[in-house]
Amino acid sequence: MISQEQIPAVVDHTIYDADGKRIGEARHVFLDERTGEPEWATVRTGLFGTQETFVPIHEGRVVDDYLEVPVARTKVKGAPHMDVSKGRLTEQQERELYNFYGFDWDSSDTQAGQGTAAGAGAAAGAGAGVAGSGTMSPEEEDADMATGATASGAMPYGREGGSRAMTGSDAMTLSEEHMRVGTERVESGRARLRKYVVTEEVEQSVPLRHEEVRIEREPITEANREDALSGPQMKEDGYEVILHEERAVVETEAVPVERIRLVTEEHVDQETVRGQVRKERIEAEGIDDTYGSA
Description:
Elements: E1 14-17, E2 22-32, E3 38-45, E4 51-56, E5 61-63, E6 66-69, H1 73-77, E7 81-83, H2 91-101, H3 108-113, H4 138-147, E8 154-157, H5 225-228
Parallel strand pairs: 1-6
Antiparallel strand pairs: 1-2, 2-3, 2-8, 3-4, 4-7, 5-6
């Protein structure tokens, strides 16, 4: 059950159903005139904002900065619209709401006295001054308005600085829209690194050695005579020398030379956002318009 202390957490905050679906923003909270406990919250509808859809909140709960009620959003969308410009609900309006949401109207009178959730729609009785009549004399109505009670048994708690809204037809509530600008993170592009292989022609000089033959002649001397005469004196003979040379051999080896990575940097740009908001205004007819001169 929502307590009076939690009313500021309800007014101007979003109402969701048990499945997390958004119902709307709470505009007013109506109190049980006998128990003082919150019974209904309204969601603004209608072209000029004078009609509101009522949502039962006596079994709701405040979660963080929003209100959760055990009533499906589809059910609320079909609820009858009520004109709350007079700041009160009539007995017929409350009876219609009770019937729509399946609440027991007949037992609401006794339950209201016990402070339970069903008491907001009771016919005028214990707290209204005339039991069972549903109406009040002018003197009784003035006295009841001074204490904040209404003939229907429900009182609004609206946007008037955290106090109860005025009852009767002598006041109207003006509202306006405020633009809230936020940011969201979206994907604006992608960057990737792709490695591929290319072939390049390179040149490098390398010294290569090779062997060549040249003829050396030496005369017979006493030092080499014995070697020169060691063989037969006359015969056919041959002698060969193997020549060698160096050739260039190319080998490749893959070695790491550099590491590359992608790094994101965040930059802040200023952007001007424009939008449209609606405001309610009042035109006075037949009287001097001194609105806003206080």
